[in-house]
């Protein structure tokens, strides 16, 4: 058998092997083999030089000013170098390092130490935190929060008056929504003009030109902002108070409806602009003075002051910054700061609570607004607020630790000085036409402070006979003043009025009780003619509070209490007039109740004190209704340093006596500061318009009232 020759192996070229390998690589799935991606750029690979792998351009390409591209080794193409890949690698590396750091397990001791440290920190923070609501709360809450839109605090009493309230029904006007454009434009202009001339000088919360520009945008619906609509409607609500004397029900309805529209926009006002929020808080405080059942002035006013300090209005801008602002912007900064101080200090003064303002130092450099050649009502108000603050702290909080308080060194010297300064302030205001017109009720503001200087207080729990006599006279004078103002239709700020009428009325009753007791030993204390005059004003007193309670139901219990006390006092005065006086349990029950009707008892103690006697200690009383005391910012600020006041020629205490000539409601203690007499009909300048015409335009039967003239969707955020 022939054997086959051995087979020679086929010659395979290198080229064929390469082609077969490439073909197999292309057919194999890409996931089966992972190739290493080169980090070197294309240029460095081709030139066979070392690449430093910098992203997004390596050092060699940077020096050569050449494009730096990466190389896809799988697809064999150039591509942009991946910064993302580099960052992903860095993240992976950092995660590995972080895992190594966390790998050691915590021991029980480590956990216990960390827990103890956290507990200690929280405990220290709780101990140092202020008691009550946080001071930051007001600046964090929306303006339509119940924190602000709740009733203002009523006069403080130490007993519960709820069971003394009579069944009195109060008719609330129903809010009506309509368009501002439905009211004739000349009526709107007349009301705004009235606000700018009568109300704004007292509390300049908004620039007059800005207010008219906002009204133009709102009335014509030219893209008005929420603040435009709010400011126009709340100023109209304030201006409407003037028409209360003409038709209280219709004017109240119109004012309430203006306020309803303004309040509906509060959630959109000042959310991002602190200037809008500041002006809104000041306007709300002003409105609360007139309608205290709608807004809490004791919260809005301090919130405005805190906001002023937060945005730095208490610092005068450096000269370099002032060069970039016009004079109007600088004036607005100063105006808003001092208006906040004015309303905040007023709220504290009315409630007889301490208020301290920083000293004008390098830390507090704000200047007063320029007033040109006219005396500045703002500066005159600041002088009054400083005097009110001094009187409140010296007479009612003598133990407050204040450095360099003028009454600490020599109380007698301070007592004489503050009387002279009060008299100088009154004379300056009264003799200036501009100040007398702008600070219209300066007479009552003056008398209220004189009352607090003489009535029983923690510093003088046992006033002298002369001080008791002045307390009696000024209490009657204040009741007479308010009766005259009410009859003339000018009882606008009912929040102030409720406090001052209640305080002067309680002081009057306390002095009558003191006089009745003293008359048993000295019949000259209350003469027969004095009893007749006292009975006259005791009858007037309750009617004033009842009238205020129609617009502010919160003081109805106070009116009811005063009414019952006055009825009991009248019985005792009639007994005294008939020649006898029955000392029974009812008399002492009335006396005990009167001693609890004010924050500080109006009933004098037994032995009389002297000016230089040792101060009687007192503790800070708890705030009423959960409201905190006004801010304590440091040692007192003294505006009188920047304006010299000289004592007027008129004696500080005129020779008042309880005679019919001096105390009849038809005559005033001083010459008439209001420019009218008993027989005058009240007249206001509404740009030549009659009050009936304005009320008819606002409350026509066909179109009940105005208000929101812009749909909510047109307001940013609405």
Automatic annotation (TrEMBL):
Signal peptide: none annotated. Its main location: nucleus. This is Zn(2)-C6 fungal-type domain-containing protein. It comes from the Eukaryota. One of its GO terms (molecular function) is DNA-binding transcription factor activity, RNA polymerase II-specific. InterPro entries: XnlR_reg_dom (IPR007219), Yeast_MetPath_Reg (IPR052202), Zn2-C6_fun-type_DNA-bd_sf (IPR036864), Zn2Cys6_DnaBD (IPR001138). The keyword Chaperone does not apply. Keywords: DNA-binding, Metal-binding, Nucleus, Transcription, Transcription regulation, Zinc.
């Amino acid at each position: 058998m022939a054997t086959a020759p051995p087979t020679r192996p086929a010659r395979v070229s290198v080229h064929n092997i390469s082609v077969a390998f490439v073909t197999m690589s292309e057919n194999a799935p890409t996931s089966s083999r992972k190739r290493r991606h080169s980090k070197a750029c294309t240029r460095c690979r081709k030139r066979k030089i070392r690449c430093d792998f910098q992203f997004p351009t390596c050092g060699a390409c940077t020096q050569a000013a050449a494009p730096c591209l990466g190389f896809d080794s799988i697809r064999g193409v150039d591509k942009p170098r991946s910064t993302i890949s580099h960052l992903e690698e860095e993240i992976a590396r950092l995660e590995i390092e972080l895992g190594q750091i966390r790998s050691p397990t915590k021991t029980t001791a480590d956990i216990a130490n960390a827990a103890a440290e956290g507990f200690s920190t929280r405990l220290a923070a709780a101990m140092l935190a202020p008691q009550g609501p946080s001071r930051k709360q007001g600046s964090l809450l929306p303006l339509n929060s119940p924190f602000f839109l709740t009733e203002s605090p009523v006069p403080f009493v130490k007993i519960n008056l709820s069971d003394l309230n009579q069944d009195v029904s109060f008719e609330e006007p129903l809010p009506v929504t309509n368009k501002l454009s439905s009211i004739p434009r000349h009526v709107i202009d007349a009301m705004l003009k009235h606000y700018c001339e009568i109300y704004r000088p007292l509390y300049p919360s908004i620039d007059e030109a800005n207010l008219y520009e906002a009204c133009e945008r709102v009335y014509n619906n030219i893209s008005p902002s929420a603040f435009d609509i709010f400011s126009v409607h709340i100023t109209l609500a304030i201006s409407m108070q003037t028409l209360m004397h003409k038709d209280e029900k219709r004017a109240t309805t119109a004012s309430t409806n203006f306020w309803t529209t303004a309040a509906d926009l509060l959630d959109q006002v000042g959310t991002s602009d602190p200037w809008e929020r500041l002006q809104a808080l000041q306007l709300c405080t002003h409105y609360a003075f007139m309608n205290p059942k709608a807004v809490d002035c004791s919260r809005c006013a301090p919130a405005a002051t805190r906001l002023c300090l937060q945005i730095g209005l208490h610092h005068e801008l450096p000269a370099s910054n002032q060069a970039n602002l016009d004079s109007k912007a600088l004036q607005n900064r100063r105006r808003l700061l001092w208006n906040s101080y004015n309303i905040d200090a007023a709220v504290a003064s009315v409630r007889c609570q301490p208020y301290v303002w920083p000293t004008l130092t390098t830390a507090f450099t704000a200047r007063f607004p320029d007033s040109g050649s006219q005396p500045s009502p703002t500066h005159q108000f600041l002088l009054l607020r400083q005097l009110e603050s001094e009187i409140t702290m010296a007479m009612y909080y003598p133990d407050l630790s204040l450095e360099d308080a003028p009454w600490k060194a020599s109380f007698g010297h301070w007592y004489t000085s503050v009387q002279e300064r009060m008299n100088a302030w009154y004379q300056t205001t009264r003799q200036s036409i501009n100040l007398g017109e702008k600070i219209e009720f300066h007479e009552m503001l003056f008398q209220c402070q004189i009352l607090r200087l003489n009535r029983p207080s923690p510093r003088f729990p046992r006033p002298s006979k002369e001080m008791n006599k002045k307390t009696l006279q000024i209490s009657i004078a204040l009741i007479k003043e308010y009766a005259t103002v009410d009859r003339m239709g000018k009882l606008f700020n009912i929040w102030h009025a409720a406090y001052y009428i209640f305080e002067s009325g309680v002081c009057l009753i306390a002095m009558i009780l003191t006089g009745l007791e003293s008359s048993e030993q000295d019949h000259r204390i209350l003469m027969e003619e004095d009893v007749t005059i006292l009975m006259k004003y005791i009858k007037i007193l309750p009617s004033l509070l009842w009238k205020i309670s129609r617009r502010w139901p919160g003081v109805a219990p106070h009116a009811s209490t005063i009414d019952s006390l006055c009825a009991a006092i009248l019985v005792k005065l009639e007994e005294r007039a008939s020649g006898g006086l029955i000392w029974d349990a009812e008399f002492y029950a009335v006396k005990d109740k009167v001693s609890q009707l004010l924050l500080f008892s109006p009933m004098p103690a037994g032995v009389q004190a002297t000016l230089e006697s040792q101060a009687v200690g007192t503790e800070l009383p708890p705030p009423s209704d959960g409201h905190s005391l006004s801010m304590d910012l440091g040692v007192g600020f003294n505006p009188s340093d920047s304006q010299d006041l000289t004592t007027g020629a008129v004696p500080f205490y005129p020779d008042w006596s309880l005679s019919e000539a001096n105390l009849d409601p038809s005559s005033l203690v001083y010459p008439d500061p209001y420019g009218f007499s008993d027989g005058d009909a009240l007249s206001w300048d509404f740009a030549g318009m009659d009050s009936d015409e304005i009320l008819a335009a606002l409350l026509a039967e066909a179109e009940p009232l105005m208000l929101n003239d812009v749909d909510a969707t047109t307001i940013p955020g609405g």
